[in-house]
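Write out the bound-state structure for coenzyme A.
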Amino acid sequence: MTHTPRSVVIQGTGSYTPGDIQTNDDLAKIVDTSDEWIFTRTGIRERRIAEESEQSSDMGATAAAQALERAGVEAADIDLVIVATITPDMPFPSTACLIQTKLGIPNAVCMDIEAACSGFIYILEVAAALLQSGRYRHALVVGTEKLSSILDWEDRTTCVLFGDGAGAAVLGVSETPNVGLLDFKLGADGAKGDVLYMPGGGCAVPATPDSLDRRMHFLKMRGREVFKMAVTVMEKAAKEILEQNGVNSDQLACVIPHQANLRIIELLAARLEIPMDRFYLNLEKYGNTSAASIPIALDEAIQAGRLKSGDLALMVAFGAGLTWGATLVRCP
Ligand code: COA
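---
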């Protein structure tokens, strides 16, 4: 079989965040914290919290249905579903299979990929490569998280940072050269896994009364170390992808960073010498939604008219693993 190089383009996006808004003042009633501390250290004012009955697959399916509608693609035309999440509804079946059923997608290859907050960039690269192979026509990629289900609501150093939500995109191929997902720069450093992790719930520490007592089924983090690594790896990934594509940072119309902390983004902006007004920000409203962060921001940026035809955009993320990733996109 001969392969012609194809562009992989984003045909439609969607997002969903739960209706329940938890403000910093609400959190100050649960743990010893304040709106002033949280806002000045992170830039976060509020986050969304899913209902008990609302799972990652429900939020992901809602965002995905919107993406399908905006793309004008029928469920029957999707032959690949890839979900990025660290909060699957359950260890198996995959959240991708659950979303497939919820959307009535009759036949597709469905899988979850776990790369924490870098997950959406990871699944974009995997989906793009599979579409370029010519063996798939349309991919549905979804980042969805119910982080409220793994937060320790007695640990003020972590529970104030995260929120719930989902974002999705439909990808397809185009014969127009040099549009869509132009390139990727992904990486990981497993040796740094212990700065941000959840010890319990896998085969190493299954659920027992002891593991519950020791609060091992909650996210654990050494925030300061994560902060420094985040800036370093995102700067590196961004600079490498710009350089390998001969792009100057002033050619970027928009940067969509992982929405973890405003101070991390400000440092990144300074190191890349890109003005802050070119960064799309929504972390004030949602906090860090891990794998959902980039696709929610991407969808909002598109709906807000921040990405026009011909524009170049950079998406860049980091997360537990450590993992990181950047992708360069030209709007068709
Ligand atoms: N409210 C009030 N005080 C808090 C607090 C909270 N929610 N959380 C921590 N503190 C206290 C600490 O106990 C510490 O007190 P001490 O000095 O008496 O020991 C003090 O504030 C400073 O803590 P520190 O951890 O040094 O603060 P920081 O400036 O590094 O900010 C983070 C903490 C978590 C906001 C910051 O390190 C961060 O954002 N890191 C990156 C985390 C991240 O993005 N994770 C997701 C990766 S995908």
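---
The first strand starts at residue 7 and ends at 16.
The chain has two domains: 7-178, 181-330.
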